[in-house]
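QA checklist item 7 of 12: single-chain prediction sanity check.
[x] sequence parsed
[x] length recorded as 136
[x] structure emitted
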Amino acid sequence: MEVEKGTPLRLQLEEREEWETLDEERAFRVSEALADPLRRWIYRELGKGPLRQAELARRASEALGRKITSVLMRYHLNKLSSAGLVRFESEGTPPRRAKKVYRNLEVRIQARPFYPPPGGLEGELSGALRRAREVR
C-alpha cells in the first residue's frame, strides 16, 4: 500500500455487513430525501464513486436534459446530507475548498405486510387514548 506524504490514512477497523433498521423518524427523513427524482439520480450516480459538486451538476444537466446549476445541486446535496445519505470531504492542500461528495449509506427498503391489530385500528387507537389520559 502506498501512502502519500501529508495524506491522512484511514483505517477501517471492522467491516459492518449487517443492515440497520432505522427508527421511524430517520426512515421518514431518508424517504423524504429520496422522494425527489433529482436526488434519487444523485444518489445512484454517487454509487459509482465520489464526485465533486460541479461534476455532479454537469453530469445531471447532461443526463436530465436541463441546466442543473451549482446552487440547485448544493440544495439537493444538503437535503441528502441531512438525511445521512451523503457526506462531503475536502480534498487538496489547505486551504481546502474543493469538496468531493461520497455516498454515505447503502439503502435497502424492506417491506412487510401490514396486519391490523386483532381489535381493529379503532380499538387500538381508543386504547392508546385511554392510556394517555391515565398518564395525566
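[x] summary fact logged: Residues 1-14 have pLDDT under 50 and may be disordered.
[ ] second reviewer sign-off
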